Amino acid sequence: MESTVSLVFDSVGANLHTSTDCFLCGGVAVATYRARGKRCLLQLDGPETVPGPGGLMGTWIWQPAGEGLEVRLELENTGATELVLDALDVLAVRASGGGMLDLGTRPEDWSVYQNGWTSSSPALARHVRDSYYTDPGTPEYRWEHFPHWDGATPGDLTSEWVTVISPGSAPSLLLGFVTTRDQLAEIRLSFSDTTLAALIARCHLDDVVLRPGERRHSEQLWICYGDDPLLLLEAWSARTGEVMQARVPPSMPTGWSGRYYYFGASSPGDIRDNVEAMRRHSLPLGTVLIDEGYQAAIGDWLTPRAEYSVNGLTDLVAEIHAAGYRAGIWTAPFGLSADSKAYQQHPDWVLRGSAGEPVSAWIEDDVDCYALDCTRRDVLSWLRETFGVMRRDWGIDFFIVDHVTAAARAGWHHDPGVTRAGAVRLGLEAIRAAIGEDAFLLASGAPLGPCIGLVDAMRTGPDADPNWYPIWSHDLSLPSAGNALRNSLVRASFQNRLWANDPDCVLIRRRGQESELVLNEMRTQAALTGLCGGVTFDSDHLGAIRPGRLKYLRQILPPAGVAARPVDLFRNEMPHLFQLSIDRAWGHWWVVGVINWEDRTVETTVSLAEMGLPAGAYHVYHYWRRRYLGMTTDTLTVQRHQPHETAVLLFKPVAAHPDLLTTTFHVCQGAVEVEACEWLEADRTLSIRLRKQGRQFGRVLYALPGGWSVLETRVNGRKRSAVEVAPGIVALGLTLSGHAVIDATFGQSA
Q1: Quick one: 284 and 415 in the same domain?
Q2: Pick from 434, 459, 484: which residue ends a domain?
């Protein structure tokens, strides 16, 4: 990643230079706070230490960091009274104060990465002009997705923790907080007509108290400049994961959940039926989830409803383990429903509003679920005890914690020195301490930043839902297959850097069986989940699904572990190209998901350049249609690209000798199931070793240059026949049960 920056301070403020032109000037740092009830402001124009009203001392620190610069604001209360901290603008560039950001093009031509603050909040690279995204703008929507809307103006564009501004034809600018433990943070852009009115990188202190003699610092802001905006975003993810000591599992979890079939009404019998179906069909799924609905009420987690009972639940967990699966459980630990015994016995455990009322975090079955105050010691003890019982006594080893934003709701904390982000971490730290380092923790409905380093996986989008569109089609935060997939593509750079990404469950059942997804939509969900490479769960009644549908589940298991890249993220608000680069000792190839988001059939032409492929000649294979599309050196056209269809295309460089073209056992086409592939020149034999859990039929396809032919093929030493499926392409079909060795010998005509 090319990025050359230097920093100069002068009387006007911070000026940030590239190796050629100054592109940012007039930057300042600002702390807003209250002293003796009076609103105060401390502004810093340079790296010196500056005193402010009430005894607050501020120091603005800039230093080189990696390929860019790191900025933070440090505060100390040198006075005799408490100070109440509101916000820290680690960098503020305001046109009204003489500040300017010039990236070589007009702001109306920019594409700006916008990361929502929770799993379900919309994420996209938003075009400043002509964006298809429409903010519903209701108080309920802003309460749910804009935790610091106060002070914003209509037209403001805010991104949580990180943004990348891509001007199109010129290099891009990244601003991102690489520490996220203590403060919710945002990058906010305000526009006036076609000009930028303000750029602010702000940390929110939520009115925490800074006592005399105490110090506090902002989160660390990283500023980087480079030619490729997507590489900048990936660099931020990697740096943040390193600084925050992210937990990245060595392998991606798989499993089954009844969430989108039983919708909270699954019984122990339903779970047993699906465990039996998993065994009967040899499905390589690793976890069985006891989902929402087993509990008596939100908050009464250790009191299962009568159908489960404590003994029945522990017996069920033992059966799941005996069948060879991990036992998972769903909770929403940071909320107490108004009708729960926990709330009735401990009403003081929840956050309170300005009038002393309990703060509602969400509504479940028309009942308020109040936000837990995770700054209380008794609450943290209760969390440790609850999850300790689940882990130690029940045997649960996979935990989903949902509605995590409840701990970050605004309200009066028992400990006035803890921020909203800090409260989230206290709650998650208590849970992690209770379940241990070896249990798996997946967060959902969460403010993303404070979870880094504590969770193993993170939901990256809204609930999948068995519908392509949400109830209100313009609300990108509502449950739907399309919304879940879009968010997961936009956040693909987080995979293996911040945690394991969870794009939510796939639904492979036929339309009409509790699903409105048509075949192309189901295939797109499967394909993009497979290319995401992270957590992979199914949510169907597996015993009722025909074998012909189960193949789609097998074709995305196990996860590849690495994520494809939305290479056109900053060109298209709905990325059309999801490209996975696969590099092995025996070859390098690319799998690209070409997505048609339209409601109509189109003809889609893509070029090697826009997909990020090196120049050269490539074989092209269409995975879902099982069709060889020929060779290309420039562009490829997908004919009859149907509504909501993802054409999964393999691009394999043309070789001088017979070569493995692809296999059909996995959507990543060789990245998972091909263990080794060796061309033996002396014998003119290609030897392939396959290994994949479960039992599955598929094909191995070979590409033969002109003049070559297949003389013999053997599977595990036994002769098998290969057939020509296109000029120069031959295929061998087989049922793969665990592993196989395939040897193909070729001859060349004179």
Answers
A1: yes
A2: 459
Query: What's 444's domain CATH number?
Result: 3.20.20.70
Confidence tier at 155 by pLDDT (50, 70, 90): confident
Residue 91, domain member (yes or no) = yes
Read off the pLDDT of residues 561-604 as tens digits, 9 standing for 90 and up: 999 999 999 999 999 999 999 999 999 999 999 999 999 999 99
Domain's final residue, options 194, 210, 243: 243
Angle at CA 117, nearest 5°, toward 115 and 120?
90
Is residue 135 part of the annotated active site? The answer reads no
CA–CA separation, 330 vs 387, rounded Å?
Answer: 11
Residues β-bridged to residue 744 = 686, 713
Per the CB < 8 A criterion, the answer to whether 409 and 359 are in contact is: yes
- Name which of 449, 451, 416, 426 is nearest 214 in CA terms: 416
Instruction: Select from 207, 214, 186 the least CA-distant residue to 75.
Output: 214
pLDDT in tens, 599-628: 999 999 999 999 999 999 999 999 999 999
From the list 291, 463, 475, 538, the catalytic residue is 463
Catalytic, out of 402, 504, 540, 568: 402
Percent of the chain residues topping a pLDDT of 70: 97
| CA-closest candidate to residue 278, choices 620, 581, 693, 584 | 693
Do 118 and 202 have their domain in common?
yes
Does residue 463 carry a catalytic annotation? yes
The total domain count for the chain is 3
Query: How far is Cα 647 from Cα 611, in angstroms, rounded to an integer?
Result: 14
- Which domain does 667 fall in, by range? 659-750
Q: Is 672 contained in some domain?
A: yes
Q: Using an 8 Å Cβ cutoff, are 592 and 584 in contact?
A: no
Place of tokens 């702390």: 31
